[in-house]
Write a structure and sequence with these properties.
The chain contains 8 helices and 6 strands. By secondary structure, it is an alpha/beta fold. It has 2 domains: 37 residues, no CATH class; 132 residues, Protein-Tyrosine Phosphatase, Chain A, CATH 3.90.190.20.
Length: 182
C-alpha cells in the first residue's frame, strides 16, 4: 500500500500505521513485509468513518469518541468546516480544551441528548448556531439543513451514549441509519 492510499483513510490511520511499523523495523523485518501487512487494513467502525457524501457534505461517524481527548482529535483532523453533533451522558466534561477548535473549525453545533447544559455553557458565547436534538434522526436532519456543500457533518459526542443508546455502537448505527434516511 502506498503512503497516498493510506492517507486517504485518514490522518489517524497514517499515525497508527507509522507507529505500528516502528517495532517491525527495529527487529529488521523487511519493509516489503510491513507494506504487505498494511494492504489488508480496513477502516475501524465508528472511528472517523465516512458514512457517505451527499451534495458534497461528508457524514463522519466518530461515535466511539466518548471522551474529550478523542473528540479533540476528531475535530483537529477534520479538514472541512464542521457541523458537530455532540452530547450524551454528561460526565463533568470541561469543554474549554475544545474552544479553540470550535472557534476555528466548527460552524454549527447540534447538542444530542438530555444532558446538554455544559455544552451550551461552554460554547453559547461563540458566534455559531447551537441547537438541541432529542433523537439521532433529528440531530442528523438539523445538521444537514445547517450544512452546505463542502462541510463535514461530524458525530463526535465527547460523552458516553447511555442516555439514548445502549452503547457507542448503537449510537453509531443510529447515525448511519439516520444519514441513509435523508
Amino acid at each position: 500500500m502506498t503512503f497516498e492510499a493510506l492517507a486517504k483513510q485518514g490522518q489517524e490511520t497514517v499515525y497508527q500505521s507509522l507507529a505500528a511499523s516502528i517495532g517491525p523495523r527495529i527487529r529488521d523485518i523487511r519493509k516489503e513485509s510491513i507494506k504487505e501487512s498494511f494492504n489488508g487494513f480496513q477502516q475501524v467502525d465508528h472511528r472517523l468513518e465516512t458514512v457517505v457524501i451527499i451534495k458534497d457534505m461528508e457524514f463522519i461517524n466518530d461515535s466511539k469518541s466518548s471522551t474529550l481527548n478523542s473528540t479533540w482529535y476528531a475535530l483537529e483532523n477534520t479538514s472541512r468546516p464542521i457541523i458537530w453533533i455532540v452530547g450524551g451522558v454528561e460526565s463533568g466534561n470541561d469543554y474549554a480544551i475544545l474552544r479553540h477548535l470550535v472557534r476555528t473549525k466548527v460552524k454549527g453545533i447540534i447538542c444530542l441528548g438530555t444532558g446538554t447544559s455544559r455544552i451550551h455553557e461552554a460554547f453559547d458565547d461563540i458566534d455559531i448556531p447551537i441547537t438541541n436534538a432529542l433523537t439521532m434522526d433529528e440531530a442528523v436532519q438539523n445538521a444537514y439543513y445547517m450544512g452546505n456543500s463542502g462541510d463535514a457533518i461530524l458525530l463526535s459526542p465527547a460523552c458516553p451514549s447511555f442516555d439514548l443508546f445502549k452503547d457507542y455502537e448503537a449510537r453509531g448505527n443510529a447515525f448511519r441509519k439516520a444519514v441513509k434516511n435523508l
